[in-house]
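Q: What changes when uracil is included in the input?
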Amino acid sequence: MRMVEIIAAKRDGRPLTTAEIEWVVKHYTAGDIPDYQMAALAMAIVLRGMDDRETADLTIAMARSGDMLDLHDIAPLTVDKHSTGGVGDKTTLVVAPLVAAVGLPVAKMSGRGLGFSGGTIDKLESIPGFRTSLSTEEFRRAVHEPGLVVAAQSGDLAPADKKLYALRDVTATVESIPLIAASVMSKKLASGADCIVLDVKYGRGAFMQTLDDARQLARTMVAIGHHAGRKVTAVLSSMQQPLGFAIGNALEVREAIAALRGSGPPDLVELSLVLGSELVRMAGLRDSVDAARLLLREALQSGAAWEKFRAMVVNQGGDPTVIDEPERLPTAPVQVAFPAPRSGFITAIDGQALGMVVNGLGGGRSRKEDTIDHAVGLVLHAKVGDHVTAGEPLLTVHAAHQADVDQIAERIRFAYTIHDKPPPLLPLVEDIIREI
Ligand code: URA
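A: The predicted holo structure follows.
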């Protein structure tokens, strides 16, 4: 087979055969297909799409590109959670310890930032010493004790996705239902969990801008999961504005710690309870999501979820004294409040624009090899529906240099819409897809 012919076929809208997809994944993983050809194919897929059969073939080929973990000798049942990516989305840092605290072993492989959205691995690496690169053996041991592991995709698990994910991040080829579905589900199938909850985000701060696209992505992923014999539920959640108040790696870790200690932003806590309840229900620990939610609330209030998070940090080499006193996490030297340009009600906050601002401050990557500044980011002081007075701080910019702040003022102004009348309030969770 020749890669150039496969690229041309997809460019012209022809479905790829199972054999062609397997060939591409095998040879890209092995390094025989260069990044520029893979980027061209990814762009052709973004523009032309893939049907369900092609998407399933791509997912299975990427999952099988490395080891497929079987954790049943360690725990009879393990759970996992994944988000399709959003701005300010630190939910994993809350949900994972929360469900682990009620006895569900969490085996989670996470990603780095992608496009304008942050990634859990970058966030966790703002904790000094925290190791995200674990061997398969270390990953397995952590599933047993402390019963919670969040690690970067090891070289052995879904290596095809690992390479392609980094390539898509810098070639504007993220926004594609088949590519996102295959990326997410290949990792989920390879990392071995029995019950998986997917947080499928839609809106300005998500890769799926409309509810319809998000629903289609959710259905595609639930179908792939069921086909592979896993229990999968997808929660459709709104990214009409950033989640919580903090955007940026260390700032988000601080906010997640606050949530685990009982003082998190309401939207973050609510979404964490919804996602966690689905896992508790799927795992059969409780019959209904209402009963599951009660169980999780207790774990949050008793401090058990916080203790699990701490145990994970210790187990993965992080400095626990820094999370005990989160003000010791990396802190930006320049902190400047940005004033509201007029009085009125905030009717929209463009999460994508703010995510790009944080990237521009150094909190994300524009090339695969870039390093990031964990300390930078934004802390919002008001959200959609809130009333602000002209001159009052809308948000605080955390930057490495004053010059960075001067450059982004205009973009921040355009990210906010302020009107005289309050906007209708949108639901945080639009739908939950359990069956297809
Ligand atoms: N999350 C992933 O793991 N992959 C994507 O492509 C997008 C979000």
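Observations recorded in class: The domain at 331-419 is CATH 3.90.1170.30 (Aldehyde Oxidoreductase; domain 3).
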